[in-house]
């Protein structure tokens, strides 16, 4: 009986050991799933966007290309990027963006010179009166002109409260 138990134990140890590399590989394949989201400061959010290489690795807003026509206050030409959670909400017409959704709008002058980057970042519980959005306006020289519960951003975007405060595209089916 002991011999059978020893063999059984050896088989179990080998089986568990054989599974370990697969589990380790899976964890290594999903670092973005475990990435820490930034806090509600412009510096933290910008560091997150830079680390994520948003201009190289994030998709453009569905149906929009680079330097599409815009209006004030964002600029005459716009390029809008979205992270994965935002893209999923747009694609699946979920009605609202989930916490962690980020929309980055690059604002350009008529001559295609970058003027500013405006960002909307959805943070659960941050700003319930305005859809939990954290707003940032960062000028081309890196100066943060506005961040947080920005009255001008909130006032304008309130016109689109039924579309989760977003002007571009519809989140409803």
Structure, described:
By secondary structure, the chain is an alpha+beta fold. Helix content is 34%, strand content 21%. The protein is built from 5 helices and 6 strands; from the N terminus they run αααββαββββα. Strands 1-2-3-4-5-6 form a 6-stranded antiparallel sheet. β5 and β6 form a beta hairpin.
SS-derived structural category: alpha+beta
Mean pLDDT: 84
Residue fraction in strands = 15-25%
Q: Count the E strands.
A: 6
Looking across the biggest beta sheet, what order are the strands in? 1-2-3-4-5-6
Oligomer: single chain
Q: Give the overall shape.
A: globular
Order of helices and strands: HHHEEHEEEEH
Poorly predicted runs are 1-34
CA radius of gyration: 22 Å
Give the % helix. Answer: 25-40%
Q: Can you count the helices? A: 5
How would you sum up the major sheet? Answer: 6 strands, antiparallel
Calculate the terminal CA-CA distance, rounded to whole Å: 65 Å
List its salient traits.
5 helices, 34% helix, globular, alpha+beta, 173 residues, single chain
Short note summarizing the structure:
With 173 residues, the protein is α+β, with helices and mostly antiparallel strands.
Topology:
Elements: H1 2-29, H2 42-51, H3 54-57, E1 68-69, E2 77-82, H4 84-92, E3 102-108, E4 114-122, E5 133-139, E6 144-148, H5 151-157
Antiparallel strand pairs: 1-2, 2-3, 3-4, 4-5, 5-6
């Amino acid at each position: 009986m002991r011999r059978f138990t020893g063999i059984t134990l050896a088989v179990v140890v080998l089986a568990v050991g054989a599974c370990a590399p697969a589990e380790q590989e899976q964890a290594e394949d999903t670092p973005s799933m475990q990435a820490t989201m930034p806090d509600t400061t412009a510096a933290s959010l910008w560091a997150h966007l830079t680390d994520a290489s948003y201009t190289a690795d994030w998709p453009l807003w569905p149906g929009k290309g680079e330097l599409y026509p815009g209006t004030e206050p964002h600029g005459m030409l716009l390029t809008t990027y979205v992270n994965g959670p935002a893209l999923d909400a747009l694609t699946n017409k979920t009605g609202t963006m989930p916490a962690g959704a980020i929309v980055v709008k690059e604002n350009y002058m008529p001559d295609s010179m970058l003027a500013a980057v405006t960002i909307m970042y959805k943070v659960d519980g941050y700003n319930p009166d305005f859809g939990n959005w954290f707003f940032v306006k960062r000028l081309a020289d890196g100066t943060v002109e506005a961040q947080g519960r920005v009255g001008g951003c909130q006032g304008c975007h309130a016109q689109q409260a039924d579309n989760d405060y977003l002007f571009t595209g519809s989140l409803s089916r």
